Amino acid sequence: MRPARPLLFIFTLIAFCITSAPSFGFQSSADLLNIGDSLLNTGDDSTKTETDTNHHQSVTSVIGTLENYAIATNHFSKVLERDIDTTLIASSLPLIERRITIIRDRLENQGADINLRYLSALKNFIKNEVENISNWKEVVDNRNHEIQFIYDSLIKIQNDPVIYPEAYDSILLPAINVQLQGLQDRIQKVDSLYYSKQLNLADFQSRISKAQIDIDDFRDEINQLEGSIEAKLFDKEVNYIWDPTSYSKEKDLPHIIRRSYTINKIIFQGYMAANIPTFLLTTLIAILTFVWLKYLIRRIKDEKEFADLILKRTKFVPSNPIFSTLLIILPITPFLYHSPPIVLNVILLILMILATTVLITPIVNKKAYTYWMIFSFIFLIYSVSNLYSEKAYEERWALLALSIVSISLAYNIIKNIKGSNFTHPNQIIFLIRVFLIIQGASLISNIFGRYSLAKILGIAATTSLLQALGLYVFVLVIMEAIYLQIEVGKKSSKEYTAYFDFQEIQNKIQKIFIFFATAIWLFYLTKNLIIYNYLYNIISEFLSIERTIGNTNFTFGSILIFLLVIWFSSIIARYLTYYFEAKDQKVATNRKQRLGSSVLLIKLAVFTVGFLFAVTAAGIPLDNIAIVLGALSVGIGFGLQTIINNLVSGIILAFERPIQIGDAIEVGGRSGVVKDVGIRASKIQAYDGSEIILPNGDLLSQHLINWTLSNKQRRIELIIGVAYGSDSDKVESILRNILDREGIMKTPSPNVYLQTFADSAVEYRLLFWVHDFDVWVDMRAEVMKEIYKAFAEENIEIPFPQRDLYIKSIPQAWQSPSRNNKPSGDNEKKDEN
Question: What is the pTM (predicted TM-score) of this model?
Answer without folding.
Answer: 0.64
